[in-house]
Write a structure and sequence with these properties.
With about 220 residues, the protein is an alpha/beta fold. It is about 35% helix and about 15% strand. It has 8 helices and 11 strands. Strands 5-2-1-6-7-11-10 form a 7-stranded mixed beta sheet. Strands 3-4 form a two-stranded antiparallel ribbon.
């Protein structure tokens, strides 16, 4: 496996971490294409812990983002601070509310959000080296804070989130669940996934297209 992709996780579970299906589909497609990957996550406390059965937040439970991300990576996950852009050909960030709660505060701050500084530093390396960046589901909302203004992305057709993207200086493009938006100038590929998906097969189609395009862009 000559090509190597970094996958950045934000915990485990749609409501307080990385979306499990989106992450698994990303890793599956990378493996199917013979692309090597390594998972990373910040070694920080989660914003909060959500009971995924009741969808209610716990008032007394605490969890660590890196430790929870290890559930998704079968234990093989490294601290985000160890990610060096020059060791990888591309980076992909699956969605899930952990993106908006742990990697940033978008869930509470909206278009006034701030991004985790260590995350921003890591992504700046991929941006500066013009390496492909894949953002899935809610993750495209981070593009302007991570990479700069004027980047074309999609979260599907959610008016609230697309409005926030525009307010922050991004360019939102409406997109079906099974398709992708490619900003060739900035080397960014996005897909709505579970911003729109009602079935895992729908999410899979868009995510596979995203990974395929990332593969093409790596050359």
């Amino acid at each position: 496996m000559t090509k190597q992709v970094a996958v950045i996780l934000a915990g485990c579970g749609v409501y307080d971490g990385s979306e499990i299906y989106e992450t698994t589909l990303t890793l599956l497609r990378l493996d199917q294409l013979g692309i090597g990957y390594r998972c990373f996550a910040p070694d920080i406390e989660q914003h909060h812990v959500v009971n995924h059965h009741t969808q209610e937040a716990s008032t007394d439970e605490r969890r660590n983002v890196l430790v929870e991300s290890a559930r998704l990576a079968r234990g093989d996950v490294s601290p985000l601070t160890e990610l060096a852009a020059d060791e990888f050909d591309a980076v992909i960030v699956p969605g899930g509310f952990g993106v908006a709660k742990n990697l940033s505060d978008f869930a509470s701050a909206g278009d006034s959000m701030e991004v985790l500084e260590s995350f921003k530093e890591v992504l700046s390396g991929f941006r500066d080296d013009a390496k492909p960046i894949g953002l899935i589901c809610i993750a495209p909302v981070l593009a302007t804070r991570l990479l700069g203004d004027g980047i074309a992305v999609t979260v599907g057709n959610d008016p609230g989130v697309s409005g926030a993207i525009s307010a922050m200086g991004g360019l939102h493009r409406s997109c079906s669940v099974e398709d992708i938006v490619v900003d060739l100038e900035h080397r960014v590929v996005t897909t709505p996934a579970y911003m729109l998906a009602t079935r895992i097969s729908e999410a899979a189609t868009g995510i596979f297209k995203l990974v395929d395009r990332i593969d093409d862009m790596m050359g």
